Amino acid sequence: MAYRLGIFPNPTQDIVNIEFNLDRSRSVRLSIVNAIGQILQTENLGERSAGLEQISVQQLPAGAYWLMFEVDGIRVAKPLRVIK
């Protein structure tokens, strides 16, 4: 699977933007996971080949998290920091 993935701003206070491009249309899911592996938030995007998504992190306390980008069952983790 060929892909491009960017998250910004990072660190963030309220909204994180996730920009991605895939080689073809695939099933996409985004999740935010804490340091002990608990899934805190999930967005199922359906079949997509590209996109710019915004996720609110206002409800999360300041800390270090992982943004999980899952495509057709393959997961890629990117670090995400929330500041207050």
Strand content: over 45%
| CATH architectural group | Sandwich
The CATH superfamily appears as Macroglobulin (MG2) domain
- Order of helical and strand elements: EEEEE
Summarize model confidence as the mean pLDDT.
Answer: 95
SS summary, helix count:
0
Q: How many β strands by DSSP? A: 5
Q: Which word captures the global form?
A: globular
Ranges with pLDDT <50 over ≥5 residues?
Answer: none
Assembly state: single chain
Number of domains: 1
Task: Kindly provide the name of the CATH class.
Answer: Mainly Beta
Largest sheet: 5 strands, antiparallel
Describe the secondary structure blueprint for this structure.
Elements: E1 3-8, E2 15-33, E3 39-56, E4 63-71, E5 74-82
Characterization of the model:
The protein has 84 residues and is an all-beta fold. The chain has a single domain (3-82), classed as Immunoglobulin-like (Sandwich). Helix content is 0%, strand content 73%. The chain is built from no helices and five strands. The chain has strands at residues 3-8, 15-33, 39-56, 63-71, 74-82. Strands 1, 2, 3, 4 and 5 form a five-stranded antiparallel β-sheet that branches. A hairpin with a 6-residue loop joins strand 1 and strand 2. The protein is globular. The model has no long low-confidence stretch (mean pLDDT 95).
